[in-house]
Amino acid sequence: MIILDGTEVKVEHFPDGTQRIVLENLPKMEWRNTHEITWKFEIEEELSTLIYVTRHLRNMPCIQEIYLNLLYLPNARMDRIHNQREVFTLRGFADAINWLRFDVVRILDVHSNVGAALLNNVLVYTPERYIKEVLKQIGEDPIILYFPDEGAAKRYSGLLHGMPYCYGEKKRDWDTGKILGLNVRTNGMGLGGQTVLMIDDIIAYGGSLYYSAKELKRIGARTIYAYATHTENSILDREKGTLIKSLEDNTVERLYTTGSLFAGEHEKITVLEV
């Protein structure tokens, strides 16, 4: 979904599949010299819409500045390639965004530093306020934070100074991407009877948090919650999904996420407004 100055851009399609775009609110704002575009990612075709709309605005006589709010960075997981047959899609995406010459590109909780480094005029927002809101809603004290790997621990633990945390070490089949097992590094803490909040940036089916929750329960955690900044709608897939099983069998009490990606509904998923 592309939103221009607070109004969703409506897209229709001609019989050949190409886009017909009419900016219905443009007469009200054609003399503005600053515009703000928000992209709430749903499908990759929206990149074409963004290009058409931005180029249209650039051709207007009064436009001086255009800001892009990129709630979720598409292609963020493809931040490296392992051989020449793999296409570095994140770089190609960043090249397209940079070509549009946005004055500021705001991103929420980018998956890695690579994504931010490839973009011009980028401003990355941390998920600190959302995590603090989740802690407030849970309302228990103490809470131990859990991160699915050491990299996430280094990235997020500094946002919540002084809170105890532990992290996971995944065993993964790098050919298939499948998680084979997981160990929890407790940093010397006993987790018996404790409340734990698992934190991650992006989840699709929730495999990392599913295996984490199983291991946390095994070593004695009493209550487990989960937070992910970006949650794909695939989380609700009961055939491929794994975390959904943990939610429905009460291994995980609740998943908290932002509305950057998730557009579904589930009684045990709370969506925080972005």
Describe, in short, the structure shown.
This protein is an alpha/beta fold. It has eight helices and 15 strands.
Secondary structure blueprint with pairings:
Blueprint: E1 2-4, E2 7-8, E3 10-13, E4 19-22, H1 26-29, E5 34-39, H2 46-58, E6 65-70, H3 89-99, E7 104-108, H4 113-118, E8 122-125, H5 128-138, E9 143-147, H6 150-156, E10 165-172, E11 179-185, E12 195-203, H7 207-218, E13 223-231, H8 243-248, E14 255-258, E15 269-272
Parallel strand pairs: 5-6, 6-7, 7-8, 9-10, 9-12, 12-13, 13-14, 14-15
Antiparallel strand pairs: 1-2, 1-5, 3-4, 10-11
How many domains is the backbone divided into? 2
What would CATH call the class of the largest domain?
Answer: Alpha Beta
Query: How many alpha or pi helices?
Result: 8
The helix/strand class is alpha/beta
Net shape: elongated
- The secondary-structure element order is EEEEHEHEHEHEHEHEEEHEHEE
Report Rg.
21 Å
End-to-end gap: 14 Å
> Helix proportion of residues, in percent?
25-40%
Number of separate strands: 15
Oligomer: single chain
* Largest sheet, strands/sense/barrel: 7 strands, mixed
Strand order of the largest sheet: 11-10-9-12-13-14-15
**Average pLDDT score:** 87
Could you tell me the strand content as a percent range?
25-35%
Report the CATH topology name of the largest domain: Rossmann fold
The CATH architecture of the largest domain? 3-Layer(aba) Sandwich
* Parts with pLDDT < 50 across at least 5 consecutive residues: none
